[in-house]
């Protein structure tokens, strides 16, 4: 049997106390945990749809959490999938994208890397307009897929 985690131990200790207000404390802690979000930055998107009559050009901002989610889902194929995605920005400008892939054993690496680089650029252009960020794609791991025993 697994030992209880520190959070489970703290919960059990608080439930054993006679102090009033446990329910409110528990509810506040749960609300805080549920509302905690991962840190993210915003980057400027330029889709070229500025109005010539506007005093200032329209500015769209995209969360880096959204960009990572788009890349994470858009880079999954039968031959590779992202293992880590790193985005760098300078203010509201996306400056670098670093993708680490897991690939299936036996693929031709230059072709996979080229396809992943092309797909990454397409996703970035769709999300933020012109892809001016430096994009790097690396192989982080190789997955060996084998035939099930019943096929042998």
Number of helices: 4
Mean pLDDT: 80
Judging by the overall fold, what is the CATH architecture of the largest domain?
Answer: 2-Layer Sandwich
Strand line-up of the largest beta sheet: 3-4-5
SS-based class: alpha+beta
Number of domains: 2
Question: What does this protein structure show overall?
Answer:
The protein has 152 residues and is an alpha+beta fold. It folds into two domains: 6-35, no CATH class; 42-143, Alpha-Beta Plaits (2-Layer Sandwich), CATH 3.30.70. The chain is 37% helix and 27% strand. The protein contains four helices and five strands. The strands form two sheets. Strands 3-4-5 form a three-stranded mixed beta sheet, with helices on one face. β3 (80-90) and β4 (93-104) form a beta hairpin. α3 packs antiparallel against α4. The longest helix is centred in the last third of the chain and has 20 residues, at 109-128. It starts with 5 loop residues before the first helix and ends in a 9-residue tail after the last strand. The mean pLDDT is 80.
What are its keywords?
alpha+beta; 5 strands; three-stranded mixed sheet; 152 residues; 2 domains; flat; two-stranded antiparallel ribbon
